[in-house]
Amino acid sequence: MHRGFPLRWSHGTVAELLTGRNNSLGLLRLCLALAVVFSHARVLGYGGKEYLHYFSGGQADLGKLAVYGFFVLSGILVTRSGARLTVGRFLWHRMLRILPGFWVCLGVTAFVLAPLLYWRLHSTLHGLNGPHGPVDYLRADWGLSTDEQDISRIMTDARSAGRTHAVSFNGALWSLHYEVMCYVGVAVLAVTGILTRARRAVLVITAVLGWLVIRHASRDPLWAGQYDSHYLHYVRLPLVGQVSPSFMIYLGFAFGLGALIEVARHRIPVSDPLGVASLLVLAGSLHYGYLFTVGIPAFAYLLVWLAVRLPAPFRRIGARNDYSYGIYIYGFPVQQTLALLGWTRWGIGAYLALTLVFTLLLAAASWHLVERPALRWKDVGKDHRGRPTFSSRPVHRHVPEQRTADATAGRR
Questions:
Q1: 313 is in which domain, residue-wise?
Q2: Full pLDDT tens readout for the chain, 412 residues
Q3: Are 322 and 338 spatial neighbours (Cβ–Cβ below 8 Å)?
């Protein structure tokens, strides 16, 4: 190993080293978002399987693994925020982080991309605003439900014509309502005092979710997670629409691992041998099996280790400008648009390059014009000394303030 990166059994604890902005969490979130876009390119552009599908024996693929990584990191940062803030302010911060960018993305999809593609298919806009049109799309999905997948049958007709390979305008949005449910769970733990006075309950909750995962996954080395689970029957919840208990359990387990890392941060060492071992366990479980039994917990530790141990220059990436959420929510509709326009004919390399250019432009616009301006409202209601003017429980000052948790937590 390079002299500037010596291997040591322990450099300290997570509590000592994963603080503030002096970490590579921004880079990791950016890489996870790009991994989702990269993985989708193969299936959306060419109808193939996503990357890592065959390597993992069908257990998962690169995109799904990246989503699990997002939930782990979100579990860390959102739990930290929930322990520090009042419940009302915590929910306000989470709403500001998710909803403005999401709503604008829906608007861009409905009123920019949909008319463009409808014209491309039909050489007219007549019929665009009928049933299941742009307005119905917004009305159905504004609450993160994503029940309305298509707009005016654009993607359905394009798929029938062989131009696209999915009927959804933005299939990447499915994970957002599961993340919001995790936020609600953290709020419940905060208002009951568990996050600050009974943290072992987080271990119990994560262990129960882990048991629900492992009781199925341990029977088959190549278990495909929530897609093989017996909990897959959908139920309807207010605002968020249809949800799958299987996805709630599996993604909740990943989020719970992050929450557990946060509440036990004073006892978890940042160890190079453990970091290397977690990488080997993840790779081995991906290829040989038991990904959901041992691989996802190993992945959780690997992300924390990388956040702390990657070289210092990487810590500046994403520290101030977090494009990861924008990349996640815009990547899918950009890829669908390019596929319908026929731009896949130049090969997957060109298709990916064009996808990244347009997605990064939209992500940058989303951050600078929507997300960051919205986050400026997170301190509304505080007095001039920075104290909240409303509170549903005391603020626990012994938990260090982490701006990262407020500014960038929560992103696919």
A1: 16-408
A2: 444 455 566 678 888 888 877 889 999 999 999 999 999 999 999 998 999 999 999 999 999 999 999 999 999 999 999 988 899 999 999 999 999 999 999 999 999 999 999 999 999 999 898 889 999 999 988 888 877 899 999 999 999 988 999 999 999 999 998 999 999 999 999 998 888 888 889 999 999 999 999 988 888 888 888 888 777 677 777 667 778 888 999 999 999 999 999 999 999 999 999 999 999 999 999 999 999 999 999 999 999 999 999 998 898 888 889 999 999 999 999 999 999 999 999 999 999 999 999 999 999 999 999 999 999 998 876 654 445 544 434 444 344 434 444 444 444 4
A3: no
Residue 339 lies in a domain: yes
User: Could you tell me the CA-to-CA distances from 69 to 267, 305, 333, 411 in Å, in that order?
Assistant: 22, 13, 22, 10
Question: Does some domain include residue 8?
Answer: no
Residue 375 lies in a domain: yes
381 within domain boundaries: yes
The dihedral through the CA atoms of 107, 111, 112, 115 has a sign that is: positive
Q: Count the domains in the chain.
A: 1
d(CA 141, CA 30): 25
Q: Which of 323, 354, 318 is nearest to 337 (CA)?
A: 354
**Is the full-model pTM beyond 0.85?**
yes
Closest by CA position to 182, among listed 90, 120, 108, 265: 90
Task: Report which residue type is found at 183.
Answer: Y
**Cα dihedral 228, 230, 233, 239 sign:** negative
